Amino acid sequence: MAEHFSTVTYLDNINARAVDEHILFRMGYKKGITELGGEELIKITETIEHGRRLCELKGAYGRYLINHNDFARVQLDSGALFESGKLAELLRDSTEVVLMAATAGAEVVEVTRNEIQAGNGAKGIILDATASETADSALDWMQDFINKKLQREGRVTTRRFSPGYGDLPLSAQKIIFDSLGLAKIGVSITDRFLLVPEKSVLAIAGIQPVK
């Protein structure tokens, strides 16, 4: 029998670590093309480690049945409605979805802003990239965690799909925000559907049989 998440699960022990190469790539460095001197690389690495320490990863996820998918919109058993043909296509073989969220916390955002305002733009860019990649890595960690639970059912999640990408409007962030009760992990949302703290990410993944 499928294990349904009758309530949202909140996580504050996310052991995720962003890959240095991914952080450097986000900053514009390309492996084999961009050359970093020894001293410069040491400074960057130290700042990345500082950024990691500033991140306070928290997350939330919930599992929901798909009530309707007409390949233009997807409605969940909770009543949540996502209007996106591309999301509907991704979920074509799914009977359920997982809504998930992760945040790197407020401190890393505040320190990044302070560094930039103090004229330390280079350091601010490194901290910003570290926080972004760390938040994304938290979603990777959560998806792996969920997939381990799904193994006993012979199921697996699809790739993730996030509001603001493809034809899924950014306003869908409010649907996920409300569904997961993200105020409990210190996240809020603006009238323009932007998340606060800034380094917070949301995603939807389908649940389907292992092929």
Please provide a written account of the structure.
The protein is built from 6 helices and 9 strands, in the order βααβββαβααβαβββ. The longest helix has 30 residues, at 121-150. Helices cover 38% and strands 24% of the residues. Helix 1 packs across helix 5. The chain has helices at 20-26, 38-54, 85-90, 107-117, 121-150, 172-180; strands spanning 9-11, 58-69, 73-76, 81-83, 96-103, 155-161, 188-189, 195-196, 200-209. It has 211 residues and is an alpha+beta fold. A hairpin with a 5-residue loop joins strand 7 (188-189) and strand 8. It has a single domain (9-209), classed as NADH Oxidase, CATH 3.40.109.
The assigned CATH architecture is: 3-Layer(aba) Sandwich
- Element order: H for helix, E for strand: EHHEEEHEHHEHEEE
Helix content: 25-40%
What is the CATH C level class, in words?
Answer: Alpha Beta
Largest sheet: 7 strands, antiparallel
Class inferred from helices and paired strands: alpha+beta
Overall body shape: elongated
Layout of strands and helices, then pairs:
Elements: E1 9-11, H1 20-26, H2 38-54, E2 58-69, E3 73-76, E4 81-83, H3 85-90, E5 96-103, H4 107-117, H5 121-150, E6 155-161, H6 172-180, E7 188-189, E8 195-196, E9 200-209
Antiparallel strand pairs: 1-2, 2-3, 2-5, 3-4, 5-9, 6-9, 7-8
Helix pairs in contact: 1-5, 2-5, 4-5
How is this structure best summarized?
The protein has 211 residues and is α+β, with helices and mostly antiparallel strands. Helix content is 38%, strand content 24%. The strands form 2 sheets. Strands 1, 2, 3, 4, 5, 6 and 9 form a 7-stranded antiparallel sheet that branches. A two-stranded antiparallel ribbon has the order 7-8.
